[in-house]
């Protein structure tokens, strides 16, 4: 059962949170999604819900024979990766500053890329190499708008990006060391998304929508086929980016911890489109800030840079379209956070964590995010907690 339910023009809105805690702008977006003639059954809303560009962050949108490119947004395939290691906390040095500096040297952040492609040298053979080779062999089939970006796309594999993307070193409740990171499809995903969003807005069937940002492509059209090709390519690119960063991150750590080994790995998208079957129907599922939480499927739900994170297992709740939250969720905008909080506040809220504490990252301060404990409590029927993590080092884009 959901916690709250609102009436929508076409379908209801089921929320795994108290609707009184959802800001008006996000509720307006959700009502516009629920009014679309292609939206199926209901809109599922996760407890980290907040207003987003294009569509509401924390929304799961099921459509029949249609997809909205702005609903998934410009960071196609954005998601998480986490690795459990063989080391305990007592193996870490007293100061993690040198480790953070090494990781920042090895993994470009912000708009930066590598000076050359790094993937083939990291994975010289095996399934990861084959995945990389096949992906870039398909590059020439993508939309013409990105054809001049081949080199940039290869050089941004294994890079963090900006915004709320991060690389963290964490400890679980048994003091086991974990590697964790959050990133997406970089500039190539953004370019492909913006191109298709622009096309969708100019299609005749989208003229009278309540929100043109929710313009859709329809099944069995050349526009849908083109978007689907680019979309699924970008989602694979985002996965490649994460597993490449994991290897670079592991190599950086091994400079200081040479006996570090990987024990377990979890990788998941939380900004993506998938074709799935619910309630006996083949549907296009858009998870905008939500993870897949099918029965026993593992996922990652991070908190803010000063709060807990969780490795979870799905409970397969069909009413949520087998989904759960992708994180804590913002409770205030970036501009509001910068206006309210200071560098001193940031230092206090990230005490004990090796991370940047300057004004450029104040918008990522823990106080700008919802209480992750409350978020997890709201979705007890969606996931169970496998591991609870806390950060000891955080690198922001």
TrEMBL record:
Enzyme Commission numbers on file: 6.5.1.8
Per the annotation, how and in what number is the cofactor bound? Answer: Binds 2 manganese ions per subunit.
Protein name as annotated: 3'-phosphate/5'-hydroxy nucleic acid ligase
Tell me which residues this entry annotates as catalytic.
326 (gmp-histidine intermediate)
Which residues of the sequence carry a binding annotation for Mn(2+) 2?
182, 270
Keyword terms = GTP-binding, Ligase, Manganese, Metal-binding, Nucleotide-binding, RNA repair
InterPro entries from the UniProt entry: RtcB, RtcB-like, RtcB-like_sf
Which organism does this sequence originate in? Leptospira idonii
């Amino acid at each position: 059962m959901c916690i709250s339910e609102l009436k929508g023009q076409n379908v209801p809105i089921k929320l795994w949170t108290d609707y009184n805690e959802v800001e008006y702008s996000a509720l307006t977006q959700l009502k516009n999604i629920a009014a679309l003639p292609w939206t199926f059954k209901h809109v599922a809303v996760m407890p980290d819900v907040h207003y987003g560009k294009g569509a509401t962050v924390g929304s799961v949108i099921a459509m029949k024979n249609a997809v909205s490119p702005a609903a998934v947004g410009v960071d196609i395939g954005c998601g998480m990766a986490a690795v459990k290691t063989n080391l305990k906390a007592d193996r870490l040095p007293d100061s993690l500053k040198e480790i953070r500096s090494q990781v920042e040297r090895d993994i470009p952040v912000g708009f930066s890329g590598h000076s050359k492609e790094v993937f083939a040298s990291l994975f010289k053979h095996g399934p990861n190499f084959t995945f990389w080779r096949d992906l870039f062999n398909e590059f020439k089939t993508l939309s013409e708008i990105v054809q001049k970006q081949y080199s940039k796309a290869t050089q941004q594999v294994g890079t963090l990006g900006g915004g709320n993307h991060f690389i963290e070193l964490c400890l679980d409740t048994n003091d086991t060391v974990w590697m964790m990171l959050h990133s997406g499809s970089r500039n190539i995903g953004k370019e492909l998304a913006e191109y298709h969003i622009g096309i969708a807005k100019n299609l005749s069937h989208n003229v009278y929508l309540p929100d043109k940002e929710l313009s859709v492509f329809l099944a069995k059209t050349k526009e849908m086929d083109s978007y689907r090709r680019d979309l699924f390519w970008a989602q694979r690119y985002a996965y490649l980016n994460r597993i490449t960063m994991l290897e670079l991150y592991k190599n950086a750590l091994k400079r200081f911890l040479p006996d570090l080994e990987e024990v377990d790995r979890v990788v998941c998208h939380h900004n993506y489109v998938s074709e799935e079957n619910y309630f006996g129907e083949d549907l296009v599922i858009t998870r905008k800030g939500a993870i897949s939480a099918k029965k026993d499927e593992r996922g990652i739900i991070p908190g803010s840079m000063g709060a807990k994170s969780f490795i979870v297992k799905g409970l397969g709740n069909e009413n949520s379209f087998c989904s759960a939250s992708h994180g804590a969720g913002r409770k205030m905008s970036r501009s509001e956070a910068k206006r309210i909080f200071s560098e001193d506040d940031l230092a206090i809220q990230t005490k004990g964590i090796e991370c940047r504490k300057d004004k450029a990252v104040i918008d990522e301060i823990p106080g700008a995010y919802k209480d992750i404990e409350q978020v997890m409590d709201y979705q007890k029927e969606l996931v169970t907690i496998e591991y609870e993590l806390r950060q000891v080092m955080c690198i922001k884009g």
